[in-house]
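re: ur question from earlier - yeah i can do the single chain one, its not a big deal. heres the input i used so u can compare w yours
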Amino acid sequence: RSRRRRRRRRCRRCCRRRRNPNPNPNSYPNPGRARRMPPLLLPLLLLLAPPLAAAWTPLAMEPSVAYGAWPSPLAAGRISASQRKLLELRPAPDGESPIWCESRPTEAGRYVLCREGGDVSSADHYVRTRVHEYGGGAWAVTADAVVYSHFADQRLYEQRISPSGEPQGAPVPITTADGDFRYAGGVAFTNSADGEKYLACVREAHGIGGVEGAAGVANEIVAVKLSGDDRGAVTVLISGRDFYGSPTVSADGSSLAATSWDHPNMPWDDIQLLVLRDLPAALGGAAAAPEVVVDGAAEGSTESIVEPRFGPDNLLYFYGDRSDLYSLYRLNVAGGAAEPELVLSAEGKDLIGPNSLWVMGTQSYDFTPDGKKLVAALPSAPAALAFVDLDDITSKTLSEGLPDHVNEVLACADGSVLLSGGSCSSPDMVYRWVSGAPLVSLYSTVDDADMVEPAWVPVPEKVEFETTFEGAAATAHGWYYPPTNPDVDMREVPGTDAAPPLLVKAHGGPHGAAKIGYRLDIAFWTSRGWAVLDVDYGGSMGYGRRYRQRLTHPQPNWGVVDQADVAAGAAWCASTGRAAPGRCVIEGGSAGGYTTLAALVFGDAFQGGCSMYGVADLKLLASDTHKFESRYLDRLVGALPEAGAVYDERSPLQHCENLNAPLLLLQGDEDKIVPPNQAERMYEVLMAKKLPTALVMFEGEQHGFRKQENIEKVLNYKLYFFSKLFGISTADDLGEPFVIQNLKNIPEA
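and the output i got, formated as C-alpha cells:
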C-alpha cells in the first residue's frame, strides 16, 4: 500500500502524461481535456516579456553597471550646500555657552560667529582676517562682547553680547580705517596696573614705506585698547622679527608670551618662544626686549613650538616636537626653569593637527575654570580626553566615548567640556561632554534634511605602501576609500571592469595632511563606483618631525618625494586589486596642484589630472607670492639665485614637452597665494600641444573655493572631465558644463 501511495505521489508531481492522454505543449494540464492557447495570447506574452523581465529586477539592486557609472543620489549641489565648516570654539561670557565660527558656502563662503539658537555676528559682516593670507584667530571673547576682524576692511569691530552670547545692538568699529592693517590671534586681558581692557594680537601692516608686495609687510605683537577715552589706540609690544604668532597673557597679567620665527623658517621649522616679562610697563611705553625662553632656532637645536598658553598656575604650556612627535610641555617662566617639563607624550601620532601650524586661533587643550586640571584631546580613534592634575602631572585620567576626531576643547564652569569634532559617518558637530553621561550634540554642520545614510559614506582604510626616499626603500601613508553604493550588487558589476578607476588626491601645503572625517566630497566619487586614495606623502603632518622633513632634509625634495609617493600609492592600489591599471587620475589644490602637475610631467603613473590653483612655475611663485610663504621654497627647493637650476628642473611649466596627459585647470581670479598667471601659462602650453584641456576661472574666489555654486561646479566639472577621459557614460545629467579643448585627442579608454 505504501509503495502504491509513493507511485501515485510521483505521478501527480511529474507525470502529466498519465493524466492527459493528449499531451500538447500549448495545452493546459487539465486532466482528460486539451485546450489550445488563444491565438493572440502567445504574441502578446512575447511582446511583454522584455519589459516584464526588466521590471522584475530587485529594487534593492541596480542592474549591471560599470564602475564609475553607478547612479548616485549624492548630487554635487547637495554636497556643496551641506558643507559648513567649524573653525574655532570659544566660551560665551557665562563660561558655559558655546560660541563658534563657521563657514557657509550658501552665503558665498562667509564666516559667521554662531551660538545655540542663532548668529552672533551681523548679517552684513564676514568674520575673517587676512594675516598670513590664510587667516585664523579672527575673533576673541571679552567679558561682555566679541571682538572680530571684518574681512571687507580688516578693521576690528566690537559686538556686545549677553552672558550666553546673544547679540546686543549693532557692531561698532574699534580700530581706525587709516592704513592697511590686519589683526589675528587676539586674546583679551586686563592691565593689572590700571584695570583697562586690551586685546593682545598679531598685527600685520602692509605698504610700509610705500613698498608693495612681501617686502612692504611688517608683523608685530600689539595691544589694542578696548576701554577708556582712547579706545582703539594701539601699543606695539614686540617687533623686529619676520613673524609672530599666538600671543598669550599670564593669569596675573604680568607677562605676555608668543612664538616668533624668521625667514626661511615656517611654523613647523625652528621656532623661538618669547616672553615679555613686564607687560604693564610695556603698556605704559617702557617696553623691554622680550626674552627667548625656548630657542628652537639655536645652533644644534631644532624645535617647532605651537599653541603656547599660560595656565592658571602661571606656567607656560605649549606643544613642541623635540622628541619627533608633537607632545605637550610646560615651563616655569617665573622660576627660571631651563628645560620644559613633559605633560602629555604623543604615542605614534602628533597630538595636534595641521591647523595649529598653518593658522592661529586653534585650541587643542584648555584648563578647568577651578584651575586644577588641564584637558586635552588625544588623537586616538575614537578620540579620548585626557585630564591632567596640574599639581601632579603624573596623575592622569582618560575619558572615552568621543567622536573619531576632536578639533577643539573647551572646559566649562559647570564641569562639562565642549568639543568640536566628528567622524567618518557623522559630520563635524559641537558636543557637550559630561562625566558619566552620554555625549550630547548641540549643533551639526549638516542639517537633518541633508544628512546622508551611513551606507553611502565610505569607511577609509588606513594604508601603508612601499616607496623610495633618498634612493632607499621607505614607507608612505594614505587613506583608501573603496567604491561604496548600497544600491549596487558588487557581484553584478561587469566582469570587464575587474577593479574601479582610481582618483588619487594630493593634499595642499605641502606640509599639510589628508583630511579625515565626514567626507561627502569623497562619497561623491565612491558612490559612483570610483575608488579614492588620499595620500599622506612624505612631508605630511601627523607622523612626526622626521617624516615631515622628508621634503626638506637632507636636501630640498619638493617635487621629488611627493611625486614618488603619489605614484607609488597608485601602483600599490593597482597591484593589490584596489584600482584598475591604466585608469588612474590625480587631483590636488595649491601645493597638491603642483604635485599633480609634476606627476603628469615627470612621471607616467596617471592618465590625466586636475590642478586647482596649482603651482606650475617655481621661480614665478617665489617672486610673486605673499610674505608668509615668500621664502618657503628656500627649504623645499633651495635658495635663489644659487638653486636657480633646480627651480627650472622641477618646474612642470619648463618641461611640458614631457606632458602627454589630459589636464583640467581650475583657478580663482583673486588668488594672492598662487596667482592666476600660473594656470594661464600652463593652459597656453596645453593648447599649443593640442592636449585635451580646459581652464575655468572662478570670479571672486581666492585661494580655494568657498562659494556653494562654485563648490558644486568643481565637483561636476571634474566628474565630467574624468568621465570623458575614460569613456564612462555617467548616470548624471551634466550636459556640457564647459568646453574641453582638443576633446577629440583624448586617448582611447
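The first helix runs from residue 2 to 14. not sure if urs matches, ping me
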